[in-house]
Write a structure and sequence with these properties.
The chain is an alpha+beta fold. The protein has five helices and nine strands, in the order αβββαααββββββα.
Length: 212
């Protein structure tokens, strides 16, 4: 995983990502319609009133696009592998395939399904972009869906456990974003991601001096 991160640490994003980031940059959620693929991002548990609020980007992980494409590729590869099973059973029943070959095909399909489950579990929790609204009360997490598309999840800042209260170390490859309510956990890489607004990041996750 670390080797993949090193291989794609700064993949170019859409045109808006290539704009110079001088000072603070505000975005309304419509600026990243083509983050991964061409589908507009979907929102999960969107709180009332966020449609008109402006969100400030505080963190970005450029390589998330590569993970999105990898997720789509893995889904397609797994589908093709599973589709090969029925013909394999048919050929075995007709004596055109040995039992060992059929077991090999089944093993490959089972391994592909297991890898898809593991990769999907991780990719759906890997943070691509973090935003905070102007009032500093709502955190918007941009991450991937099972199919490799972008999805936005909203978390109240008051529910986010500061990293200073967890056992995660900033030097780790990934640190967790957890909530007091025990809802969905996300994974953040401070080693390969970029903090764009350190002040707002500190307000959400704790004093930066202890995170760097």
């Amino acid at each position: 995983m670390a080797a993949l991160l090193r291989a794609v640490p700064r993949l170019p994003g859409p045109a808006v990502w290539r704009r110079p980031l001088y000072g603070l940059q505000c975005c309304s959620g419509q600026d990243f319609r083509r983050w991964v693929g061409s589908r507009s991002p979907t929102s999960k548990e969107k709180p009332a009133g966020t449609e008109t609020e402006k969100f400030q980007m505080i963190y970005r992980f450029d390589a998330i696009r590569a993970f999105g494409y990898l997720s789509k590729l893995k889904v397609a590869q797994t589908a093709l592998t599973v589709v090969a099973l029925p013909p394999g059973f048919y050929w075995y029943s007709q004596g055109l395939m040995t039992f060992n070959s059929l077991c090999l095909v089944g093993g490959i399909a089972g391994f592909a399904l297991a890898m898809l489950y593991w990769m999907s579990y991780f990719f759906r929790r890997l943070v691509g972009i973090l935003y905070v609204n102007e009032s500093g009360t709502m955190l918007r997490v941009a991450h991937l869906t099972f199919w490799g598309w972008r999805q936005d999840t909203y978390c109240p800042v008051a529910e986010v456990i500061p990293m200073t209260e967890t056992q995660d170390r900033p030097q780790d490859l990934f640190v967790q974003i957890r909530q007091y309510s025990g809802k969905q956990t996300f994974y953040l890489t401070l080693r390969y991601g970029r903090i764009l607004d350190r002040e707002r990041f500190t307000q959400v996750f704790g004093v930066l001096d202890t995170l760097t």
